[in-house]
C-alpha cells in the first residue's frame, strides 16, 4: 500500500520533464529527473483557480485596439503633426514605431501571456527585487483613471447639450448665466461662435475659478456626470473580461463607424483642402529638430499605452501557448492608421472653419481644447449640427470607456489578491473601486478642479511613464533574460495555416536572426532610445516653465504654479516612482554589501518559485531540466 504523506507536508518528488509538462513529448531535450517540492494534502487536493479566458481571439484584439485608440489619437496626434512639420512628422513617427513602439508592445504582450498575471504580480514573479515596478504601474493607472473619467464627464456634458438646435454652446454668447450674458454682446458674426464655445467650456462646463488658489463653487452638474461615467464603466466591466469582451464589439468598432461617416462629410466641406494641406504639407527642415523626434517617441509611447501595465493584463487572459506576435504588429499598425485617419477628419472640419472665419488653421490648439473649443465651434457651423455633435460625442464616450477597461481590471486584480478581500466577489470589488475612485475624483468638480486636473496630468505624465517603462524593460530583458521568453527553438510566431510562415519558423537561420533581432532591440536599442527621449524631455521641461492655463476676465492666461501646487505635483511624481526603490531596499533589508552581491543578489533577481504555468509544472524546474523555453509553442 502506497504511503500517503501527512496533510500539508512538503515532499521531494522525483519527476521527469515529461511529467512536468507532458505535451512537450519528444521535443524535450532530455529526460533528466528533477526533484520538485510538492505540497500534498491527504484529505483534499485544492485545484488552482481557473483563470478567465477570452471567448475568442477577436475579443482580445478589439480590447487591445480599444486600449490603444483613445482621446490622444483624436487630438494629440493631429496637433503634433501640425506643429512638427506636417507630413514630415510621419517619418520620425514611423521610425519610432518600428524601433520603440512595436518591440516594447510585443514584449508586454509576451510577458502577460507567459506569466498569466497582471502587471503587479507579473513583474514580481519575473524579478522579485524589482516588483515595485508593477506597483508604480498601478499608481499610474490610478492617476490616468482620474484623467480619463473627468474628460468622460466633460464629454457627457457636451453630449447632452447636443440634443437641441443649435447645441447649447452656440445658443448664447457664453451660456452661463444672465449676469455674465448681460456684460457681453449677442452673437454678431461667425467669429463669435468660437468665443461662445470657449466661454461655454470654461464658464458653463468647468465653472472655472480665476486661479488654482481659488477653490470656487461646487459644480453639481459635473459631479452627477462624473457619477454617471463611473456607473456606466461599472456596468460594462463588473464581470471582468466576460463583460468587457462583449462590450468592446460596440465601443471599439463604433468610433470607426462614426469616423467614416464624418470622413465623407468632412472632406466635402468647403475649405477642407486647406486643412489637409496644413496637416500633410512636409517641412523637411523640421527633421533636424530634436524636439520633433522626442515628440514622435512620446506619441508612440502614450498611444500604445506602454508602461501602464494594461497590455500585460489583457494578454494574461490568453492561453500560454497562444502567439501574440501578429497581434502586436496588427494593433500597432491599426493604432497608427487610426491616428492618421482621425487627423484627416479633424483637419478637414477645422479647414472648413478657417474658411468660414477667414483665419489660419495654424492657430489650432492641442489637448482637450481642440475638441471642446475648436472642434465644438466647427460643429456649430455644419448643417444639421446637432446630429454631427451627437455622433461625435458618442464616439468620444466609446473612446473613453475602452481606454478604462484594462485599468479597472488591473485594480480589481490587485484588490482581489489582498487577504481580506479574497472572499469577496469580483463584481463587488469592482463596485467598491469605482465608488472610491469617484469619491476622490470629486475634488475635480470644484472651481479650481480644472487646474488640479492639469496638475495631475503634467506631473504624472511623461517623466514618470518613461522611467517606469525603462525599468520594466531593463528588468525583463536584462535581469530576467530574453532567452527565457523567446528562444531560437520556439520563436513566438504561430500563424496556423500559413505555409510561408511555417517554413520560416522551421528555418534555423531565420530563427537565429529573429532571436538576434529581438535581443538587440530589447537589450540595446530600445533602452538607448528611451533614455535619449527621457533626457530630452527633462531638458525641455527644465528650460520651459511649468505653467497651467487659467481662465480669468474672459481670457486664457498662462500662469506659473504656486509653491504649494508645485510641491503637490512633486509628491505626485514621487508617488509613481518611489515604489521601485522602496521595494528594492525592502528585499535587501539589513544586508551588508558583500552579502548582497555574493548571496542575496542572485536570489532576489531570480523568478519566484510560485510562478507556475497554467497547467501546473514549475517553470524554473522545467527550464533547468530540459532547457526548453517557457513560452513553448
TrEMBL record:
<dbReference type="InterPro" id="IPR000175">
    <property type="entry name" value="Na/ntran_symport"/>
</dbReference>
<feature type="binding site">
    <location>
        <position position="68"/>
    </location>
    <ligand>
        <name>Na(+)</name>
    </ligand>
</feature>
<feature type="transmembrane region" description="Helical">
    <location>
        <begin position="253"/>
        <end position="280"/>
    </location>
</feature>
<dbReference type="GO" id="GO:0005886">
    <property type="term" value="C:plasma membrane"/>
</dbReference>
<protein>
    <submittedName>
        <fullName>Sodium- and chloride-dependent betaine transporter-like</fullName>
    </submittedName>
</protein>
<feature type="transmembrane region" description="Helical">
    <location>
        <begin position="428"/>
        <end position="447"/>
    </location>
</feature>
<feature type="binding site">
    <location>
        <position position="303"/>
    </location>
    <ligand>
        <name>Na(+)</name>
    </ligand>
</feature>
<feature type="compositionally biased region" description="Basic and acidic residues">
    <location>
        <begin position="11"/>
        <end position="21"/>
    </location>
</feature>
<feature type="transmembrane region" description="Helical">
    <location>
        <begin position="222"/>
        <end position="241"/>
    </location>
</feature>
<feature type="transmembrane region" description="Helical">
    <location>
        <begin position="516"/>
        <end position="543"/>
    </location>
</feature>
<feature type="transmembrane region" description="Helical">
    <location>
        <begin position="127"/>
        <end position="160"/>
    </location>
</feature>
<keyword id="KW-0479">Metal-binding</keyword>
<feature type="binding site">
    <location>
        <position position="73"/>
    </location>
    <ligand>
        <name>Na(+)</name>
    </ligand>
</feature>
<feature type="transmembrane region" description="Helical">
    <location>
        <begin position="563"/>
        <end position="586"/>
    </location>
</feature>
<dbReference type="GO" id="GO:0006865">
    <property type="term" value="P:amino acid transport"/>
</dbReference>
<feature type="binding site">
    <location>
        <position position="403"/>
    </location>
    <ligand>
        <name>Na(+)</name>
    </ligand>
</feature>
<dbReference type="GO" id="GO:0035725">
    <property type="term" value="P:sodium ion transmembrane transport"/>
</dbReference>
<feature type="transmembrane region" description="Helical">
    <location>
        <begin position="60"/>
        <end position="77"/>
    </location>
</feature>
<dbReference type="Pfam" id="PF00209">
    <property type="entry name" value="SNF"/>
</dbReference>
<keyword id="KW-0472">Membrane</keyword>
<keyword id="KW-1133">Transmembrane helix</keyword>
<feature type="transmembrane region" description="Helical">
    <location>
        <begin position="386"/>
        <end position="408"/>
    </location>
</feature>
<feature type="transmembrane region" description="Helical">
    <location>
        <begin position="328"/>
        <end position="352"/>
    </location>
</feature>
<keyword id="KW-0813">Transport</keyword>
<dbReference type="GO" id="GO:0046872">
    <property type="term" value="F:metal ion binding"/>
</dbReference>
<dbReference type="InterPro" id="IPR037272">
    <property type="entry name" value="SNS_sf"/>
</dbReference>
<keyword id="KW-0915">Sodium</keyword>
<feature type="binding site">
    <location>
        <position position="335"/>
    </location>
    <ligand>
        <name>Na(+)</name>
    </ligand>
</feature>
<feature type="binding site">
    <location>
        <position position="69"/>
    </location>
    <ligand>
        <name>Na(+)</name>
    </ligand>
</feature>
<feature type="transmembrane region" description="Helical">
    <location>
        <begin position="89"/>
        <end position="107"/>
    </location>
</feature>
<feature type="binding site">
    <location>
        <position position="399"/>
    </location>
    <ligand>
        <name>Na(+)</name>
    </ligand>
</feature>
<keyword id="KW-0812">Transmembrane</keyword>
<feature type="binding site">
    <location>
        <position position="402"/>
    </location>
    <ligand>
        <name>Na(+)</name>
    </ligand>
</feature>
<feature type="transmembrane region" description="Helical">
    <location>
        <begin position="459"/>
        <end position="480"/>
    </location>
</feature>
<feature type="binding site">
    <location>
        <position position="66"/>
    </location>
    <ligand>
        <name>Na(+)</name>
    </ligand>
</feature>
<feature type="region of interest" description="Disordered">
    <location>
        <begin position="1"/>
        <end position="34"/>
    </location>
</feature>
<feature type="transmembrane region" description="Helical">
    <location>
        <begin position="364"/>
        <end position="380"/>
    </location>
</feature>
